[in-house]
Amino acid sequence: MDDLDQRKRGLWGSKVGSIFAATGSAIGLGNIWRFPTKVSENGGAIFVLIYILAVVLIGLTVMLAELVIGRHSQRNPVGAFKNIKPKTPWKFVGYLGVLTGILILSYYTVIAGWAAAYILKTAKGTFRGNITSESVHQVFQEFSGNPVQVTLFFFFAISITCFIVSKGIKSGIERWTKILMPFLFLLIVFLAIRALTLPGASEGISFYLKPDFSKLSGAVVLFALGQAFFSLSLGMGMMITYGSYISKSDNLVSSAGWVCFADSLVAFTAGLIIFPTLAFAGILGKVKGESLIFEGYPLIFSTIPGGYILGTLFFILVLIAAITSTISALEVAVAYFVDERNWSRGKAAWLVGLCAFLLGIPSALSFGGMQVFTKIKVLTRVDFVCANVSPAVGALFICIFIGYAWGIKNAVKEIRSGNPRFRLQPIWVFSVKYLSPIAIIIILYFIKTATG
Ligand code: TRP
């Protein structure tokens, strides 16, 4: 791609801008909703420990790998592989990413719709006064079992996403994210402090932070790795797309490090809120699964004077964090259709969005909205594939691509263009070529036990 093309395509304005954009994609429901959910289902602290190991040992490696491919090729995921290794099947790794992006969009936006509904509920005062864990549970049951409501909020969330992506006004969004995300972070830190000082909090803290090694299993490792991929938006070409906008003089290693750190910090803090709160309400270990945070967070707001205002604000920020992720998931597919198939941006955004909406209806109705879907737990299953299976396969191929197809020397050269010293080179090379691929293959084997 020549200089002129590159200018048309655009680069992030600054290094900080590029980090914020990638962080905006990474931070979302994955941190605030999915992380606590998975911790609750997979033995608490042991999951947290394995998750941290997964981020440091594999997540960082794959993140850097994707950024390198993106910056070198200056393309969307499919185009990137076509550009570096033309006329080879490598492009299918890109297709897998585009497909996974659409699937993620289909059910992730359902949960974003829940958050939107909870803004209204909290603002209306549904959770004011003497609420109990039973009443909060009931509110959730009634809402999630109402097919019309759930679908409307889902439709709302997907429409905003399509609208933003079709207008290409991501830069405006990024400016807002820069202001709002730190705000979300301050709010969750405040809530965490409140939660930690609740009576009975210590039981929640030990569930969350004191690992019980007897709970370690193949499934826990699989889910922890899946959560790391999901939360960091890895394995599906997202970071290839982002890398393609990063300037040659930026240091990719520190960018990857920051994104991983910030993302994990937010997830970790979300856990500090939810588990003490559940212990305080006496329902630790009793509520689990996708509804966890919708039954947990309202309880903490009721312990704070004026808490429903904070609660409303909280769900607004959660919705924004979710939307910054959905626009980037949609962007992966849109970038593909615009670059490779010459579609207009508007057509690509709305058509892919429509597709995701139709695909997502079974997920939306899988919490009581419609019995066939409730029985198969459609959302849970789609989520399983999109977080644990597909990104792991994608990440495996990305490592093999760098280590053995494109060539590690070329990748290192690309990294060195913005980081001449690249002190972590030996570790990264070892991880891309051996550690990460082998670990992923072993962990993928646990799918058998997890789906058992
Ligand atoms: N990382 C996002 C979150 O934690 C979710 C996500 C996973 C994602 N894969 C993605 C977002 C791909 C955009 C593109 O909320």
CA radius of gyration is 21 Å
Strand content: under 5%
Distance between the termini: 48 Å
**Total DSSP E strands:** 0
Bound ligand species: tryptophan
How would you briefly describe this protein structure?
The chain is mostly helical.
Report on this model:
With 452 residues, the chain is mostly helical. Helices cover 79% and strands 0% of the residues. Helix 6 (91-124) crosses helix 8, helix 6 packs antiparallel against helix 15 and helix 14 (292-301) runs antiparallel to helix 15. It is globular.
Overview features:
binds tryptophan; single chain; mainly alpha; 20 helices
SSE diagram, text form:
Elements: H1 3-9, H2 15-26, H3 29-41, H4 45-73, H5 77-84, H6 91-124, H7 133-144, H8 147-167, H9 170-196, H10 201-209, H11 218-231, H12 238-243, H13 252-280, H14 292-301, H15 307-341, H16 345-364, H17 371-376, H18 378-416, H19 425-445, H20 447-451
Helix pairs in contact: 2-9, 2-13, 3-11, 3-13, 4-5, 4-10, 4-11, 4-13, 4-18, 4-19, 5-6, 6-8, 6-15, 6-16, 6-18, 7-14, 8-15, 8-16, 9-13, 9-15, 10-13, 11-18, 13-14, 14-15, 15-16, 16-18, 18-19
Residues 25-26, 28-31, 101, 104, 230-231, 233, 236, 238, 325, 328-329, 332 line the site of tryptophan.
